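Morning F.,

Quick status update on the modeling queue. The single chain you submitted on Monday has been processed. Sequence for confirmation:
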Amino acid sequence: MVVLTANERRALELLEERTRPVPRGATVQRENDTTGEMFILRTGMMMSSVLLVDGSRQILRFHFAGDMIAVSGLAYREASETISALSDCVVCPFERSAFAAVLADHPRLAALIIVCNQVERAALTDRLAVLGRTSAKARVAAILIDLRNRMRMLDAGISTSFALGLTQEEIGDATGLTAVHVNRMLRQLEDEGMLAREAGRFTFTDERALERAANFVDRYAGLDLGWLPAGR
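Structure tokens below.
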């Protein structure tokens, strides 16, 4: 666990000085648009996606409160992905110049941002392997576990039961499956005693079996932060 200094906390607060409401379904960034702002997601749930040549959508990542989004704007003039709201959200927009000032003045924060990006890179690598080399059941199981774990980081009260807040079509766009196939895999997970569903809530009835079925690796566990520079 890293305890931030007062100056580090203030630097992050400055990035969140401005707020912007984003209603469900709205887009804050479109693929190939000229980039400028980055955002911290204060409340709600968003997704990053790309539109494929055949017109289908591939969801790349789900974003939760506290996530820094549109970071590809640091490297490219044009956005590499579309970012849209899956619920009513509030984002905090900031310019690249403000971000550059944080990196210059607070090397430990810069290092922590690198760590977060590497965790996300590892998680995306795992998803790529799942999409390319595992069954439809494993894909659905993996996305459910990942989403539950992300939600639990924000709400320690979440255990084996949680409200997903996604449609089967959205799960399909994240796993490369049709909504019909997603529904079939959810029923299979229920029939095999790993999962229960009721009124929009999911319950992991055999979490270890679900993790085995998903070939799941928790990329938020076992982090080595001993190398971080001292805080300022």
